[in-house]
Each structure stands twice: as C-alpha cells, then as structure tokens.
Amino acid sequence: MRDLYARFGGGLATIFLSLVLVWLAAMVLAPNLMMIDYALRPNLPPAQIGGPQDLWSADNFLYLANEGVHRAIFFKTVWASALVAAVTLVVCYPIAFWMAQRATPGQLSIALMLVIIPFFINEVLRTLAWFILLAYRGPLNAVLQGIGLIDAPIRWQGDGGVLAGMVYAYILFMLLPIYNAIESLDKSQIEAARDLGSPTWRTHWRIVIPHAKAGIATGCVFTFMLAAGSYVAPALLGSPGSRWFTEIIYNWFFEGGDWNRGAAYALTLLVLCLAVVLVTLRVFRVNLTDVAK
C-alpha cells in the first residue's frame, strides 16, 4: 500500500484502489452474496416471493446431502479434478524443466509458440477438436486399426476422454507457473549436485522441486479450480456415466428452472474447492502472496 502511494502519489493511487474495490464489490462480492441468498431460499412462484413461506433455510443443501446420485457425482468431480491436476503436473513438469534449464533461446521460443498458439482458439472449438479426434470412427481409432493395435473401434468418450480433454485444455495454466519458478533456479546448483554423484531423481526431489514449490502449487490450484468448474469438456467428451457436477448445476438453472437449488449446489462446490485450495497451499507450505507472484 505504501509503495503504491509512493510510486503514483496520493490522488492516482486512491483512484486505482477505488477502482479495484468497486470491481471486487460488483464482480465478486455482490454475485456471491446473491448466490448465498438464493441458496437459502425456497423455489417459490413469483406471487409467493416475499410471503410467509419465503424464509431462509438449509433445505436446498440438505437435498444435496440426501440425494445419493448427486452426492456421488459431487465427490467424483472433486477427486477427478484432483486427478486432472496430478496428470497435468506429471505432463508439464518435465517440459517446464527442459524449457527453463536445458532449451536454447531458439528452442524456447519455438516451444512457447507451440504451447500458446492453440490457446488463440476458443475452448469450445479446442474441445470439439478432441471430440472429433476421439470419435468412434475418428482419426485415433482409424490410426490404431491401421497399425493393427485394435481390431474394432473403441469408444473413447467417457472419463478417459474428459481427462484427456481437460489436461490439454489447462496445460498452459500448469506449465507457465512451473516454468517461471524453475527458470529462477541457479543452474550451478544442479551441476554441483551432478558433480557430487546425486542421481537425477534425487536432484529433482531435493533441489528443483523445493525451489519450484510455489509454481507447482500455483499450477495445481489453477488447474484444479478450472477442472472442477468446467462444463464444456464433460458435456462434449463425457458419457452418461461420466457426468460432472457442473452439468447438474446447469440443469438446475436452465432446465429445471430451480435457481435456488442450483445456487446451493454451486455454493457447495465453491466452498469445497476453496477448502481444497487452502489445504494444497498448506501442504506445499505456500501462502497466497507466493501464488499471486
């Protein structure tokens, strides 16, 4: 705060802070307060809103607790989002390390270009591309049949298709934070560990990963939150047996017309996601300031 006033002066700094507070109030605080209000009220006809039956209660939350199918999908969404974050981490960590410590400037430029350019396309179109690729008579099955690995086409839509689509969709949010963290690591530390006879896995475990823990935590938090709140990938790449909790929320709002129950479901997902994020930061021993960097 003092740095802001020292750099921009009292008047300009006050304007900046006021704009931030207005944005937070209008785009973050107000919508969430409205969602809490909706979640605690019953779904009533317009004529009964504000009447004696329009009282706060926990009925919408209790409905989720007692609805076995929705409860199972809720917890499945949570652990599946954690799985998406874990797989994305496994995919991105070697690439980030190579980009930060091994790649030449020319190779780094090409790698960044190859990673970033696909994100110029809308997420829906990128997911549709995966839908075409994984289709029953799509290119993947055609190639696998052509080289003799499978005899008949495989239905890839389902949990596997959703996992692949989400890992691809959110890879950038995992890759760049880890790359930025590893880039600041002094290469002499890795060389010293190698000269002292440390195997590769121990060098990463004792030197690289502790140094990059803030980037890893940031990538895991971003990827988990995006996966838990995703709707496009489960809707296009999933199957009836791989429904996502966001699809149920969408159905309550736009098909069932019950905004109150939909708000309760959405609020429950939000609270649990925040809890998972805080636990993740605690495990990595990283605070929100490190994530913001």
UniProtKB/TrEMBL annotation:
Subcellular localization: Cell membrane
InterPro entries found in the cross-reference section: MetI-like (IPR000515), MetI-like_sf (IPR035906)
SUPFAM superfamilies documented for this protein: MetI-like
The UniProt record lists the keyword Cytoplasm: no
Keyword list, A-Z: Cell membrane, Membrane, Transmembrane, Transmembrane helix, Transport
A biological process term (GO) from this entry: transmembrane transport
Superkingdom of this protein's organism: Bacteria
Main location: membrane
Membrane topology note: Multi-pass membrane protein
Gene Ontology CC, one term: plasma membrane
Membrane-traversing stretches: 12-36, 78-98, 110-136, 162-182, 214-237, 262-284
Domain ABC transmembrane type-1, first and last residues per copy: 74-280
Family, similarity comment: Belongs to the binding-protein-dependent transport system permease family. CysTW subfamily.
UniProt-recorded name of the protein: Putrescine transport system permease protein PotH
Gene that this sequence comes from: potH_1
